[in-house]
Specification:
- The structure is a single chain.
- α6 packs parallel to α8.
- By secondary structure, the protein is of the alpha/beta class.
- It is built from eleven helices and 14 strands.
- The structure holds S-adenosyl-L-homocysteine (SAH).
- S-adenosyl-L-homocysteine (SAH) binds next to β10 and β12.
Length: 364
C-alpha cells in the first residue's frame, strides 16, 4: 500500500497532541520509541486499538501501568459515544447516532445482507455540497472527521452488535473526497492486516463528483469501488439538483470515472436517485443510456427518500421499472436499491437532523 499518502493531515491532532488511533503501525512504533518503550509494545498497543477495539487504556492489561498512565496524558483516546440506536422492525437495519469528543453528533448505519454486515459511515459532520434532496447538507459543513472518528463508527458498531463487519460504504453524511487525506488514512487503517483487515474490494466510496480528487484516488490504485452520484442525464438537470455541477461539466466527471476504471480496473457505480417528474422520464433514461453505455459500469437506482424541507417525491414503481428497462435495453447493468430502514429515518442525514432539532424519532 505504498500509494497511500504518508502523513496524516494537521487535523489528526487532538488538542495539540497527535491522535494515536489515526496513526499507522509505523507511526505508533515511532511514538512508542520516543516514550522509551520497546518496539513490541507498539504492536500490542496497535492491536488493542484496531483489533480488540479498546475504548480505554486501562483495558490494555498487558501494557505496564506506568506506560498506560503516560499514554493517557500524551495521547487522549478518540472514542465515540453512542447517543442513540434505532433498529428497524422491517429489515434489521440499525441506525446509530454517535457523539464525537467535541460534542458534535454524526450518524452511521448497519445493514445486514446475506453476504455479510455492511456499515455506512459519515466522513464529515455536515456537508457543504448542497445537493437539493439531501438532509445532510441543510446545516452546512461543521468539520471534517479524523481517520479515527471514521474508524470508530465501525468499531463501536462491531462492539455493540458483537458481529463482524465485512463491508463498508462511505455514503453517510459528508463528501468523502472533500476530506481526502483523512479518508485515505482511514482506508489504510481499516484494510490493514493488523487491524480489522476489511478487504478493499468490500469498500465503496461515494462522491458527488470532485473531478481532481477522483483522479488522485485513481492514482492510489486501490481495489475499492468508486460510486458516483450522477442523478441527472444532462448538465442542465444536474445543476438543478447538485450545485457541484456548476463547478464541473458532466463530461469532465464522466471522463474522471473512465480514468478511474482505466487505472484501477474497478467498475464504477453510478447512483441515480429517482425524483418524480424531475429526472425519471423515458427521455431521461434514454439520455442516461446514451451517456454511459460505452462504460464499464453499474447503475444503482434509488427512489428518492423525501425530506421535510423539500417537496421532492419518489417516482412511482411503474416508472422506476420502465426506467430500469430502458437502461437494460442499452445493455447497462442496473439494480434498484432495496429500500432499507425507512421506519428509522433511513435517508442520509435524517436522523442527525431530527436529533439536532430536538425530535428524536422512535427511541429504542
Ligand atoms: N457526498 C457523497 C456521499 C454521501 S451521500 C455523494 O454525494 O455521493 C450518499 C448517496 O445518497 C448519494 O448518492 C446521495 O446523492 C444520496 N442521497 C442523499 N440524500 C438522498 C435522499 N434523500 N434520497 C435518495 N438518495 C439520497
Amino acid at each position: 500500500m505504498s500509494g497511500f499518502l504518508g502523513k496524516p493531515n494537521s487535523e489528526s491532532r487532538v488538542g495539540g497532541n497527535m491522535d494515536l488511533k489515526s496513526m499507522t503501525l509505523a507511526e505508533v512504533t515511532q511514538a512508542v520509541a520516543c516514550m522509551g518503550e520497546k518496539p513490541f509494545r507498539a504492536r500490542q498497543l496497535y492491536q488493542w486499538l484496531h483489533q480488540k477495539l479498546a475504548t480505554d487504556y486501562d483495558e490494555m492489561t498487558n501494557l505496564p501501568k506506568d506506560f498506560r498512565e503516560r499514554l493517557k496524558e500524551q495521547y487522549p483516546l478518540t472514542v465515540l459515544t453512542l447517543a442513540e440506536r434505532l433498529v428497524s422492525k422491517q429489515d434489521g437495519t440499525e441506525k446509530y447516532l454517535f457523539a464525537l469528543p467535541d460534542g458534535n453528533v454524526i450518524e452511521s448505519v448497519l445493514m445486514r445482507y446475506r453476504h455479510g454486515n455492511s456499515v455506512c459511515i459519515s466522513s464529515q459532520a455536515g456537508c457543504r455540497m448542497g445537493c437539493r434532496f439531501c438532509a445532510s447538507t441543510l446545516g452546512g459543513l461543521i468539520r471534517n472527521l479524523l481517520p479515527s472518528e471514521m474508524l470508530e463508527q465501525v468499531y463501536r458498531i462491531q462492539n455493540v452488535t458483537g458481529e463482524r463487519v465485512s463491508h463498508l460504504v462511505v455514503m453517510g453524511t459528508g463528501e468523502p473526497l472533500d476530506n481526502y487525506e483523512n479518508l485515505l488514512r482511514f482506508l489504510e487503517l481499516l484494510t490493514d492486516e493488523n487491524g480489522l483487515h476489511i478487504s478493499q474490494r468490500n469498500v465503496t466510496v461515494s462522491t458527488c463528483g470532485l473531478v481532481e480528487k477522483i483522479r488522485s484516488l485513481a492514482h492510489e490504485k486501490l481495489q475499492i469501488t468508486l460510486a458516483l452520484s450522477l442523478h441527472a442525464p444532462t448538465q442542465e438537470k444536474r445543476k438543478k439538483l447538485m450545485p457541484v455541477a456548476y463547478k464541473y461539466e458532466l463530461e469532465e466527471v464522466l471522463d474522471a470515472c473512465r480514468y478511474y476504471f482505466r487505472q484501477t480496473g474497478r467498475r464504477v457505480t453510478f447512483e441515480y436517485s429517482l425524483v418524480r417528474g424531475v429526472n425519471d422520464t423515458e427521455e431521461d433514461a434514454e439520455q442516461l443510456g446514451g451517456l454511459i453505455k460505452d462504460m464499464n459500469c453499474h447503475v444503482n437506482l434509488i427512489p428518492v427518500n423525501p425530506i421535510a424541507e423539500r417537496d421532492y417525491v419518489p417516482s412511482k414503481e411503474g416508472r422506476i421499472a420502465a426506467f430500469k428497462n430502458k437502461l437494460e435495453k442499452n445493455r447497462i447493468n442496473v439494480t434498484i436499491r432495496r429500500e432499507m430502514g425507512r421506519d428509522i429515518q433511513g435517508a442520509c442525514g435524517q436522523l442527525r437532523r431530527s436529533y439536532l432539532s430536538g425530535n428524536n424519532g422512535t427511541q429504542l
